[in-house]
Amino acid sequence: MIRPDDLAHCREVIRTGSLSFHAASKLLPANVRDPALALYAFCRLADDEVDEGNNKTAAVLRLRDRLDLAYAGTPLDAPEDRAFAAIIAEYDMPRALPDALLEGLAWDAQERRYATLSDVRAYSARVASAVGAMMCVLMRVRCADTLARACDLGVAMQLTNIARDVGEDARAGRIYLPTDWLAGHGMDADAFLADPHPTPQVRAMTKALLREADHLYRRSEAGISGLPRQARLGIWAARLIYAGIGDQVTRQGYDSIGHRAHTSRAQKLVWIGQAGVRALGAGVMPRSALIYADPLPEVTFLVDAARQGQPARRRMTSVLNTLADLSAREMSHGNGGQSA
Fold first, then answer.
1. Lesser CB count within 10 Å: N end or C end of the chain?
2. Which SUPFAM superfamilies does this chain map to (predicted)?
3. Is there a contact between 100 and 304 (Cβ–Cβ < 8 Å)?
C-alpha cells in the first residue's frame, strides 16, 4: 500500500520529531503502526509548515492544495504526500477529518485567541481529536461510542500540550489560555504576552487545564476496549505517556513558563509497563458505562464524519469560509495591502 521508501522516511520523521508518539507506536501491530506513522508524518509536516514558516497563511493554503491533490489521487511528489494518498485510497479516509486539522492550523495562522474553555476544546478537536478519529479509521473502527472516546483522548492530549507550553507559546506571541479565565483573574492577554511570568494566577489556570485533561483521560479509557485487541497496548501507552507530561507540570508547581516539562526514558518504560497491565485487564473487566457518554459538543462533527464516511469532495462550510478568509488576506498582502 505505502511505498517502502516512503514509509522509511515517515518512520524517521516521527523518530526525530515526536518522541512520545514514536515510543507508543512501537507497541502497535504492524498493520496499524505503519499507516499510523505515515499519518502522523503528514500531520507533523502540516503542523511544522504552519508553525515554523514565515508566512503561516501561505503555508495553510499550500496544505489545502496538497490535500486536494492527495484526494484527487495525484499527490505531490513527496514521501508524506504519497503515503497519505495511499492511506486515503486504502481506508476511505473521510475528507472532513484532515479538513478539520487544516482548519485548526488555519486558526493558528489567523492568530486566533479563544474566549472560553469550549473554544479551546473546539481548537483541540481540530488539531488533535481529528488525528484520533483518523487513527480509528486506520483500525477499521467506525463505532460512534469508541470514536467519541478517541476524541476525548485527543482533546486531553492537546490540553496537556497547552499546559506544558504556556511559556513557549507566550514567547512566540501565542496564547491558548481562555481569555475569559485571564479576565477573571484581572489579567490582560497582551500584557501577559509582553512579559510572561508564572504568577499564582497563571499557575491556577494551568492547573485548571490539567484538571480538565485528567477528566477526559479518564473518559477516554472506556473506548480503548473497543479497539482491536492488538492495538490497545499502544493506545494505553500513549494515554499514560501524555498524562505523565501533565504530571510533570504538576510537580513543577504548574510553572510551565520558567520550566518546560520533560519525561525520561525510564518514566516512559514504567508507563508502558502500566499500559500492558491495563491492556490485559481490559479483556476481563466489565465494560465501563462511560463508553456511552455523549461526545463533547465540540467533537460531534468528527464522530459523525468518521462513523458515516463522506464523499471525498465534500467539504465543511466552516473550513471553506476560513480558507476563503485566508485566501483574501494573502491576496491583499500580495497586492501590497495590509494583512488583518
1. C
2. Terpenoid synthases
3. no
Question: pLDDT tens across 86-111, in order?
Answer: 999 999 999 999 999 999 999 999 99
What is the greatest pairwise CA distance in the chain? 65
Whether 4 maps to a domain, the answer reads no
For residue 284, give every residue at least 6 positions away whose Cβ sits within 8 Å of its Cβ, in sequence order, or none: none
Domain assignment present for residue 64? The answer is: no
Cell numbers of 236, please?
494505553
The radius of gyration computed from the CA coordinates of the chain, to the nearest angstrom, equals 20
Considering the entire predicted model, what is its pTM? Answer: 0.90
Domain presence at residue 25: no
- CATH of residue 224's domain is 1.10.600.10
Structural domain range at position 166? 95-334
What's the CA gap between 244 and 160, in Å, rounded?
A: 9
DSSP assignment, residue 132?
A: H
Confidence of residue 313 (pLDDT cuts 50, 70, 90): very low
Side chain identity, residue 125 = A
Q: What's the burial of 188, exposed, middle or buried (CB within 10 Å: 0-12/13-18/19+)?
A: exposed
Beta-carbon neighbour count of residue 337 at 10 Å? Answer: 11
Query: How is 236-269 classified by DSSP, letter by letter?
Result: HHHHHHHHHHHHHHHHTTT--SS------HHHHH
Note whether 307 and 313 are within 8 A (CB). no
Is 217 contained in some domain? yes
Question: In the numeric block, which cell numbers belong to residue 61?
Answer: 493554503
* Cβ pair 24, 238 in contact under 8 A: yes
Cα dist. 123→176, 256, 279 in Å?
9, 20, 30
